[in-house]
Amino acid sequence: MLSASRLALSAVCRNSQNALLRTNPCARNFTQRSRLEKIVERRRSLKEVVAKPAGSTAFEIGKGAIAGGSLFGLGALCYYGLTFEPTSVSTRAAIWPEYVKERVRTTYAYFGGGLAITAASAAAIFRSPAAMNLVARNSIPAMIGSIVLIIGSNILVHSLPYEPGLNGKQLAWAGHSALMGAMVAPLCILGGPLLMRAAWYTAGVVGGLSAVACCAPSDKFMNMGGPLAVGLGVVFASSVGSAFLPPTTALGAGLYSMSMYGGLLLFSAFLLYDTQKIMRRAETHPQYGVVPYDPINNSISIYADTLNIFIRIAMLLGGGGSRKK
């Protein structure tokens, strides 16, 4: 594609040169100067596209995407509620055996416990100036170290076998949740009232999406794994880019909007997918299998979705969705 563009540009320049040679000397300099000025202006405009001041377009597109996603979710809930699908999770839950119900209850108990540990850890770190100074560092080594710690602790939790009671897996899960609280602690600067609003909004979003997933057919959102993985890569790249580019430029504002609004939509879709995946695993995992059902591993997916939704809602409420300094 780039080679074709260069060849086309060479052809245009060659044709322009031939046209200039056919003109008289007086007009030739004037024409050549005007065309050179146009080329310079065109090149400047391409260079300045990225660095020009940010407008409200990127943020307005993000808000429109959020509104469209909300309307889609509400319409889906109404549709599945009115049509009363006999294969929905809510319909089959009435005939679940007791062990399936216990699996779902335990999974969501670990989900709520992980959020509680994260909140307590974030509050404790916020009250310690030394710890807050450590987790609030904004540098490349700090970002890489945070990513390594999060991925490493997550792998550790998933690698340990699950057994009821207090053992190594539960301790690793608690440590992972506390580590996530350390990563979230800088949000406490936004203030308690704003974070409470963000928590209530997050609870509403998670509750509504969980209701949609339960009312929908059992495999309705199970086929979204591929598109969600692609979207995760896009949002991750946008988040990394927005960490180095100021949102006062057009490119920085676009990346930041993709990271915030696009991430909010993405993790909302992930919540639909993970909720139905939990229900499917609770139903289909053998009751007396060699490997027991693991509620901790299954809870981490919706825990991560909820935490990402909360972070983005809090930052948008704090003014991060309209940074146009």
Automatic annotation (TrEMBL):
Protein name as catalogued: Growth hormone-inducible transmembrane protein
Places the protein is found: Membrane
Superkingdom in the source lineage: Eukaryota
Membrane topology term: Multi-pass membrane protein
Segments passing through the bilayer: 108-128, 140-159, 171-192, 198-216, 228-245, 251-273
Stored Pfam families: Bax1-I
Predominant place of localization: membrane
Keywords noted in UniProt: Membrane, Transmembrane, Transmembrane helix
Oxidoreductase keyword on record: no
Family named by the database record: Belongs to the BI1 family.
InterPro entries xrefs: Bax_inhibitor_1-related, GHITM
GO cellular component, one term: mitochondrial inner membrane
Gene responsible for this protein: LOC100904732
